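so my prof wants the structure for this chain in the tokens format not the other one, which i didnt know existed until like an hour ago. anyway here's the sequence
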Amino acid sequence: LLLVANVEAQRIGIKGGISLSNADVTVLNIERASDNIIGMQVGVVGEAKLFPAIYVNSGLLFTQKGFSNNINVPVASGHIRINYLEVPLNLAFKVGAGPLTLFAQAGPYIGYGISAKNVFDDSSNEPVKIEFGDGTFNLKRLDYGASIGAGVEMSVLQVGANYSFGMDNISNLETIEITNGVFGVWAAILF
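here's what i got, hopefully its the right format
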């Protein structure tokens, strides 16, 4: 009730950006290197002022994550692309610097997998759909973790960067552990 009573200003808007995603992949307790893949993030966002200089923000975002599967396992080279509907919840601290406002934010996120596929470098191979579920070769549908970021705001425009790190293994195989990691650069317009 105290938080609701102190909410002063609320804004909603749209957000979009590009990301470099990767995963920490461990096969048979040996960490494997994988390359970044490029993705995007787009959706609706909102923020509310709680106290002077302290804000909370959230949204509903379509987020692409994944990793290269060039990790010395017996599969054709390419990458795994996983699309999520993601809900972040960040606490932000803002400070004015002339006409600009600088901000830093951090908080948890939860993602719900909506589609996944293995895309091969050899274009003669068709992409293979990856199912979500409890099966041995399925991926877990839920991903959760934490995110930190910073940026600058000028009137209705925000520009920022963030890093999100998954805290849950999204693989069902006992011998493979996969946790998401995403670096993103984005812009948002808030009204």
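also thought this was worth mentioning. The longest strand covers residues 100-120.
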